[in-house]
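Help! Submission page says 'invalid entity' but I think these are all valid:
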Amino acid sequence: MNAPVAAIRPAPEAVRIEGQAKEAIETGRTRLLVGFGLFALAFLAIAARLVEVSVLAPGAGRPLVAAVDPAPPIVTRGDIVDRNGLVLATSLPTASLYADPASVIDAGEAARALAQALPGLRQAELSAKLGQPGRFVWIKRHLTPREQYEVNRLGIPGLHFLRSEKRAYPQGRMAAHVLGAVDIDNIGIAGVERTFEETLGASERLSLSLDLRVQHVLAQELARAMARFQAAGAAGLIMDADTGEVVALVSLPDFSPERLAGADQDALFNRATLGVYEMGSTFKLFTAALVLDFGVATLRSGFDAREPIRVARFTIRDYKPKRRRLTLPEVLVYSSNIGAARMALEAGGARQRAFLGRLGLLDPATIELPEVGQPLSPSPWREINTMTVGFGHGVAVSPLQLAAAVAALVNGGLLPTPTLVKREDGRPAKAVRVIRKETSDTMRRLMRLVVTRGTGKAADVPGYLVGGKTGSAEKIEGRGYREGALLSSFVGAFPIHAPRYVVLAILDEPKGRPETHGYATGGWVAAPVVAATVARVAPMLGVRPVDERDPGIRAALDLDLSPPPAEGAARVADLSSPAEAPAGAKTGRAPIPGASPRIKSPGARLASF
Amino acid sequence: MSGLSRADTSLFGRWWWTVDRWSLAALGTLVVTGAILTLAASPAVAERIGLESFHFARRQFAYLVLAAALLVAVSLLEAREVRRLGVVVFAVALVLTVATLAAGHEIKGAQRWLSLGGVSLQPSEFLKPAFAVVAAWMFAEQHRGAGIPGNAVATALYLAVAGLLFLQPDIGMALVVTAVWLAQFFLAGLRLVWVGVAGALSLAGVVAAYFVFPHVANRIDRFLDPASGDSYQITVALQSFASGGWIGRGPGEGRVKTLLPDAHSDFVFAVAGEEFGLVACLAILALFAFVVLRGFARLLAEENLFVLLAGAGLLTQFGLQAVVNMASTLRLMPTKGMTLPFVSYGGSSVLALALGMGMVLALTRRRAGGGGRL
């Protein structure tokens, strides 16, 4: 049996190899199971992990938004920010809806659906728009995202969106008169929006000199006084006395830049820069500076205030006549019209006119706003004009001009160029010397005296050393001055020994109240606004309160009040409260000859107090 | 197709009745999945880098069609022809890979690509399946007793290939080749002592890579301690799975593709998770598992050692790439830039995988008589 079997058996060598190969394949198969098992385990682990992260994880089902940083919306108009970077105006991307009437299939049906989606639109008008020939018609500008969604949902062919942007003013009405507004095409039409149209339109950011906090306080205090005294309007500003930067600028009533359409003309009128007013007694500061700077008078000079001055058809009187000679400080402290008129005459019309011109009061102010008023001044400048301008009548200037000129009086004598743009270097763009340093030094003492002893007592804030001057001018109405219609103001600076800021508050036609004894003059209505404002903003502006009894400060503010050589002693100490009433003076008065057309009216009264 | 007669002895007829149609169907489904996910993920990526939206999609579609054709064409081969093809491709790919070191252009810090007539080619991709076939042949020859030192040759070839890949550097691919070589050596009867040594050496290799290659160290650090570095990609990927939940946010509704630069390639699985949800991800996982495990199961009945080794090597490569990609996207292991076979964007990768899986289909075809010999 063996032989035949052996005969068909392969050679022993081959068998060995065959066996070895068989063994190898068996090993391979067995070990393949290991691979199979490892892969099976790996796939199972992945499946388990998938379930874990997909449906068992804490954040399961939450859309992937937290990590998403959407591309910043592309807007083309730059932001406007205050000096601290707070946004006053910004641009929001919106969509504007237009139609291509040629591709609208059923205008009537489309109009019906659109009118439902956008309830502000009327179906009949839409139907007419969509049915007209042409390829483009606006349906609605600046849709909200929800409105856009609703329109998209309608799926009407022929309706398209254009990407547009809408100007937004997150602070509402705040600083509206500075910011201005843009039209529907986002072009600036007022305020800095218009002045800086070119740079804002080129996406550049504009940093204003305004401090939103200070702006808010001033607006609030002015609005409060306006309501309390039922005034027709109010204006105010706070200016850096050295750089001319306007830190706050308010004109009331104001408007919402986003809803220009509903605002009335009065609200759109910027009283602080566009309005020009005869300022009244605050001008006496310039008269005093004039005579001191030209050396035509000293603090000891006396001015005859015994009798009202009669010139041609005018009578210039005081409201609280002292009927004696007054020293220069007394003229300011009592706010004597007669004294101021005589003081102006000492200097003379030519010098007065040149001086006021140097202070920038006869030319329009330089400020980055299109709304700048043209000041009014008499022409020709006669002697009567010299006298009336001496106490603030016959020349009408804007509040901004007044504040800048006062800044020059107190800051050492340099007239700053007012600006609404933040000065990065903390220095004025341009400052021109207009009075001597010594004159400025004296003016500060005089202004402090008005607050400590005179009509401006209500402006005082303990520790912040306010100095200034009240003013109450009777307003012109028609062809004459209107009795009882006052422009009551206070202009001052603080801290007056080393002035940082000029503050101005003006109330237009305030009405007296029982607690003011019926008075609505600057000392009663405007000075308290300045006091309240300074008390609140001084800490924000980093002005430290000081001790008024400090010898250094006394040295800076005390005034040598020894009596003038001619007449009796000036009893400055016993000055009355700021109850300078618009007394009598009802004798008919002629208009100021040669003054502005508005003022050129017979029967005009001259009143300033 | 089912209209083909059993008696049809044409090339195609014989192929149809012998090929593993289930695996073929699974691979076809993967190709279609790849097309869908490329459409979902790549436009966002293309737009972000300033290309035309369908730049990647259009290219990938062309590659997928080519890949499907290549897959079928290669699967028509006999086992012996597969071996020859493997040798030829291995030789060509090896030369071209060497050429990349001299003439290749650099993308993302590695020199892997060759420009051939305007088309970027990554020859090392083709080296992987070809190496698996050549190594399988050598291991099998060792056991044929014809005096060929198969094991030594396979090991030498491995060292050459791995060295090249380290030089590029392409650590991921070097790891895959290493795994394939080890798996085949193991299946070819490597003594268990040596298996232990190989395991220890692999571990040492990983440790060495940690210290030698800063980006490897970085990735491992971030895996071990996510707070140690920027694990943004993985964090976002995990959030995308959570965002998708069971059924996903819907096609095109995902965000992850706008966040991750590699959403169309390395992180395509995260896109699937966000837009199509857990169910779809499990389905994709099941397709890979099916192809790999079914392939292994068919090889269990294999009589020919070369076929067994080559098939197992190719399946290991395919399965390992899928596992590494999915596991790193799911933060089961340190991130390793590895593509998800047929699903991720990448022309060379898709074509090379088609070649490899075409070979698997060819090798696992039923041969008359079981075919101990080729």
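Support: the input was valid. A stray whitespace character was the problem, and the output above is from the cleaned input. Chain B touches chain A through 56 residues (CB under 8 Å).
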